[in-house]
Amino acid sequence: xxxxxxxxxxxxxxxxxxxxxxxxxxxxxxxxxxxxxxxxxxxxxxxxxxxxxxxxxxxxxxxxxxxxxxxxxxxxxxxxxxxxxxxxxxxxxxxxxxxxxxxxxxxxxxxxxxxxxxxxxxxxxxxxxxxxxxxxxxxxxxxxxxxxxxxxxxxxxxxxxxxxxxxxxxxxxxxxxxxxxxxxxxxxxxxxxxxxxxxxxxxxxxxxxxxxxxxxxxxxxxxxxxxxxxxxxxxxxxxxx
Length: 241
Fold this sequence. Notes:
- By secondary structure, the protein is α/β, with parallel strands linked by helices.
- Helices cover about 40% and strands about 20% of the residues.
- The chain has ten helices and 13 strands.
């Protein structure tokens, strides 16, 4: 039976480490690996062989329909609970690194608002709680779980950002209108971990906040471990074939 070396599409440092980990790995069909944050569209999928395995994190509806029509097997990281848990933990570690590097206050002196209490929001809250930060969570659900970590749990609307030294968003929606953004204090560290920022970043910067979007954070702050998470996922899939 013919064997095919897996092809890693390198877009960041984590994929460089992944390529090294997968060196010599073969599949019974052509196999392609894309980074979790890349939206795989029909054009990119058009370059993939019929009947191939494709590992990816996100794909368009058109790409998924094309894959089905060409017998392409899609393995999507975001649909795997184990991978998502590992990625959320690495994202939380990355957020903590940013706080430690950029905050002018010690961790015990900062007051942090975490917006959202999904998988990533919970991981961020847990790690900040563990190191001693004072934590408030904004969430419209999961209040009971959030109270296990947070000093307070507030609704995720009508934001008053003035009490906080650090604001970390995990909700991929523009939920902080400019009238609420006006409450952010000069010097506040605003970290957005979502694919779509919750706040107008340029306006927040104009108001004096250190505001930035941090997409694919594990690839930047822990590229080896981020690559290893993908490697472990691919290995489990391969073992099940």
